[in-house]
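Fold these two proteins, one after the other.
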Amino acid sequence: MTVLLAALSGAVVGSAAGTAAQRWPREATLFSPVRSTCGSCGLVLAARDLVPIVSWLRLGGRCRRCRARIPAVHPLVELVSGVALGAIVLVHGASPRAILLGVGALAVIVATVTDLQHRIIPDRLTLPLAVVGTASVPLAVGTGAPLVGALAWSLGVPGLLWTLVLVADLRRRARPIGGGDVKLLVGVLGLAAGVDSGPRTLLLVAVLTGGLVALLGLVTGRLHRRSRLPFGPAIAVGYLLAVLAPGSSTAVAGGAA
């Protein structure tokens, strides 16, 4: 029942996450406009139009007034958010750690949508996440050597990548990774610090996923050597696999050992 409630809550919050993913790249906010509308006819959506997943299915993926198509990305974000939060609670239990990891899951889902659609990951997502992720490291791993190692992963690796970005800018060459990707990494590496081998797994999977996508893109001709590769989805895959991997719930938290 707890997992089911977490999944349902995830779908509801995922609806807001999907709205943020659509509005933030246009410099709009979650509260302006207050009410969601149809992008084609301007119909103000009623409560019955906003039930996660169900409303989209009931309407056949179309506006109930003008019958314009409603992008499938909306119910997909709600579905993935619900499954992700339910799985996190299943692995980590109903705990403060699960809440923090759930925040990270929603963040990488939003980052994936904005990166794929607009090739950006907004600062209004990454900067608060970086603060939350870094602040949660001491709570997750305690003090002493574990804290130093965790901070080295969560701050050192993004710091190195950011240095490479600055060098590329100075030499007027293509960036090896986007600035939004680096900021996103700060947050998710910090949140994954309390999970056994979380940062290492996250980075390994993200690099392998991004490399595979780049290779396939080059082979098929969809990407070129200077193409901007959306790395946000690769980070999302790495984060979700890291926090949901078997044994990830056994990491020591709070230095209590």
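Now the second one:
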Amino acid sequence: MEIFSDIFVYTLLFVTLYFEVFLLVTYIEERKMFAFPPSRERSPGSFPSVTIIVPAWNESKTIGGTVRSLLALDYPKDLLSIFIIDDGSTDDTLKVAEGYASNPQIKVFSKENGGKYTALNLGIKHAKSDLIGCLDADSFVDPRALLEIIPYFDNKEVMAVTPSVQIHNPTNVLQRMQAAEYMIGQFTRKIFSRINGLYVTPGPFSIYRTTVFDQIGGFIHAYNTEDMEMALRMQSHRMKIENAHTAFVYTVAPHSPHALYKQRVRWVSGFLKNAFFNYRHMFFSKKYGNLGLLTMPFAFISIFIALFFSAAYAQNIVGLIYKKYLEYSALGFTFEFGWPAFNFDWFSLNLEFRMLVIYAMLTGTIFFLLVGTRMVIKTNPINRSSLYFLLFYGLIAPFWLAKSLYNLITAKESPWR
């Protein structure tokens, strides 16, 4: 029985390590695309018209900053329109939005509450521009974000471009941990864009060609993850999605464990349900290239891998606590005056093949974290956020992964908030 257990564990380790090596090799081959070239100069008549839709429900505290960041975009004012869609808010969101209605760039719409996707579709219906984007009402764009995105549309095959989404002003340990997570996410999104494997167009400032909605329709409910479903639908129609890693957009992160848990359950449940119920025909299909053969299957399987190793870790930690004194002795610890004095012996390291693979995966994760951080802050990538991520993320993520898997099995809906 033990041999079958080992085969199972080594299979999971191999799949994970293979995926990390694939990302690393792709990065080495495409590293020039990770540089920070200046935006290409454009002639005055070469800018496309853009409409940015801001769906809002009970966002009175943040929508003002969101709109002001859009008005501050470095882009021709006569080519940039901003639609604020109040989705039946019960607070002062509509009142705050109407305070900007006198600006010629801004139009304010109000409707009964129907969900974010209905607000987006209302904006799409009224838009007359070449490009349509969306921005969540708790996010803020860098002044150059749109200028960094537009050059990608010079390639006629590109139908959507995603930005570099980062955490706005992280203050506590939880938000700093998320800041590091988002930096790793930016690294992987850029890699996926190079292999046409993106499966989400984030709500904060993804930009689409207007023809996308003419060809495949507007947003749908999609288990409260309409931005993920839209990307999968685009990929199912073989539409190319790019990533502008220098187009920075900042979103407000959950500040409490409960808020983070609810957000991630919604995200992961949405991915699992969209992938399994609506787009499972794309799994392992050569027709959909790297997305079908690699990124979607691994994203799906990685949830089970994470839960398996988390359970194994929890089981082992009980034994480790029981054998604490013996293990300290084996590693060269001595106890003086009631405190352990550290005398580490490299020969005491566990160099079993399984552990070597785990060390390699940890090294890969740290590398992705450093490169992703370097892409975002462009300075020293070693900071507190990275440390918090390495220490705590693996301890809390299994909780929302397990809940998301439960939601998939029971078909339970994940609330928006």
